[in-house]
Amino acid sequence: MSEAGLKDIQIPSGKTGSTKAYHDLRSFLATLEAEGQLVRVKDEVDPEEIGAAGRASANLKNGPAVLFEKVKGYANPVVTNVHGSWANHALMMGMDKDTPVKEQFLELSRRWDLYPVGPKRVTNAPVNENTVTENINIFDIISLYRINTYDSGCFLSKACIVSADPEDPTSYGKTNLGTYRMQVKGKDKLGIQALPFHDIGLQLSKAEALNQPVPIAICLGCDPITTFMASTPIRYDQSEYDYVGALNNGVPMEITKSATLGLEIPAGCEICIEGYIEPRLRECEGPFGEFPGSYSGARLQAVVRITAISYRTNPVFENLYLGIPWSEIDYLMALNTSVPLYKMLKDTFPEVQAVNAMYTHGIGVIVSTKVRFGGFGKAVAMRLLTTPHGMAYNKIIIVVDEYVDPFNLEQVMWAMTTRVDPDKDVSIIKNCPGMPLDPSSNPPGMHNKLIIDATTPKAPEVVSRETELLTPPAGTEKWEGIIAQLVKAARK
Amino acid sequence: MICPRCDTDKVELMAKSPVGNAWEMYICKTCTYSWRSTETPNKTDPKLYNAKFKIKPESIPSMLVIPPVPPLKG
Q1: Which of A285, A319, A411, B24 could form a disulfide with A301 if both were Cys (CB 3.0 to 4.6 A apart)?
Q2: Predicted TM-score (pTM) of this structure
């Protein structure tokens, strides 16, 4: 990109405290910048420094997004850590950047119930301003880089991938939007990790049984809620696009047809790579530094052939760093893992109060629930293990009473230390589905599960002695106010 | 040229920097490892590549297949 071209990527000015829905990445970057949650690196950087900057920003409390204007040898800019703090997460939802996590959970839960909010179909989307179908070279358009030292190459770590059901290709509901890691293997070739329990794994299996390719559209740099939704577990026949409208508080998402394959894609994306997953082909892929904080192994995985790349003029490449939690990816699988699991549990057990599944995409989960009778907490945990996401991901489940805030780990530890009798309250369920990227999964994809019932025993379970909870002494609330005032005065 | 990871010589030029002559990227056709000419020697030099991440070419066919390839219908 020329100097003049760089000026063209000036992002529009944002509004502090805006509750608007974002239809593209650039308008969200503008808000982040206005709120002090985006910084620009104007000097040229080596491509392999970008991963380190992503790690560094995630190490900061409320770390900002980092926009690299000049990347050595490349034409276009890169942005990372866009979702990488609770402040950015709140701004994504149009909330104040200081909103506490539990309030963000409750707001997300409220908006979740607005589903479905159908999309608005638009033409002349900016992503279709430029389309390349011959002599494709991904490096000409995307400023690719290695994220972690022993990754097997450059990876797309934040792509929103659109794919249709091979048996029902015109089904809007069965069209999938998901984030799957992609290794760059050539100017027009990618590797893709499609795990069997992922929606795209199901679609690939159906197509491969018929020896057919799977058409896909790989969208980079989408609006922030679309990217968030692409990593949210929902039912196979539910539409991610209809959820984007819901999570944007009822504002319909804008979608458009991809330039050559006609798949319906997010209209606001910066770049759309179209192509096919080749049927019945596997090739060495990985390792890749993954969300559990360790490298995956090298495996034989599926291959994508690129047939077209469309892009906004001067496209911004959005990618994320992932490493030992917490890093940017953890914010993209925290509350959007918690809320759907909460809804699924609540549907069966209205007694459930909240679910905190923020730990490593729900490998660790804390559920707070009212307890109707003995063994109820354990039964709630067993239900979690039969949900589509929980079946593979949830491994360690802690159940606490309804008055314990599952987002307050000090309270959770209190419940664990004072409610659990290890002899009867700890259960191991053997030989269940597991998350293969968890390095303790053995063989990869299988796991034993741990349930810790930290609720207070109820009949007919033997209640050896009654537990009378302490309550705050009379006047506590008044004294909270007095002490807060005194602290404020002392700090003046 | 030798692949830093699997030590075979089936290496191809994958890309040249689109702006200036800043770097080239290479890819190994055996293990699909790729690297940029400007990266540090622990990523580009077969002798300095971390032994824990080396791959033996003969081990590739027996790697775990994800997802499994289903039987053909009909």
Answers
A1: A285
A2: 0.89
